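Entry for 2'-monophosphoadenosine-5'-diphosphate complex. Fields follow.
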Amino acid sequence: MKFYLLGYPVGHSVSPPMHNAAFKELGMPHDYSSLGVEPSRLAYTIKAKIKVDEFGGASVTIPHKIEMLRLVDELDGSAERAGAVNTLQWKDGVLTGYNTDATGGVKALIESYGDISQAKTILLGAGGAANALAAQLAPRVKELTILNRTVEKARALAERIGTNSGSIIYDQALIESADIIVNATPVGMHPNVGASPIDKRHLHEGQMVFDIVYNPLKTQIMLDVEEAGGRSLGGLWMLVYQGVEAFEIWTGVRPSAQTMYDAAKKALLERH
Ligand code: ATR
């Protein structure tokens, strides 16, 4: 069966090698490839290439994640909650939209950190990625605090997800009492390597930083927390776990996250 990454432009994405490595390891005769689709041709492409027998499923990326909400036949609750579709499944003549971005991110965090139910967590950022992650994190951690450069946006996000979240002015000293710090801002992303959203003197042993940025593989804030004796988890794991969850939706089989990570990392390093 055929699987696609639907985006525009799709460029050198790491998703094809990542999924193909898992198909190969499991002996599945499927093929995953990039499919660049201009926004104006998205509806036509769904008819011509997606709703066909040989299609198995797709990942959806920029700029189609929101438009896809109204092009699918059914929406899974995950896509409804996230307000965006990142995964398509074609089964029994029904096209269903899911969202595994934030659920995958939280899965990656739990795999690495362990039980997060007692963790005081700080989320940096209040954009699209932060919104999706906040909704998944809030019910699972002890306390979620949202810090954002624009305080109003942090407050609006905290109000939207309710109860055990809070929004406070961008007071970096709050970082000191956090067990987990999630960076959902682009600060530190290539080419601004060396930039960090947090002054390193607030980081210490016992903390974990989860950065959604995956280029570079280790951002400045990750290096800083490690130097302080803490642990870090890079955004490539989030990308991998959204893929693990999608793969399981498509095939019913849970692939090896490590196999997918190794293939994604290799592709990312070859790109530069
Ligand atoms: P995405 O959809 O990928 O999350 P976004 O909606 O543009 O992207 O959100 C980016 C987030 O990173 C925002 O919370 C933004 O802060 P503002 O709400 O104040 O714009 C935050 N951000 C971006 N650049 C930043 C910087 N240099 N310092 C601190 N925060 C930054």
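NOTE: The first helix runs from residue 15 to 25.
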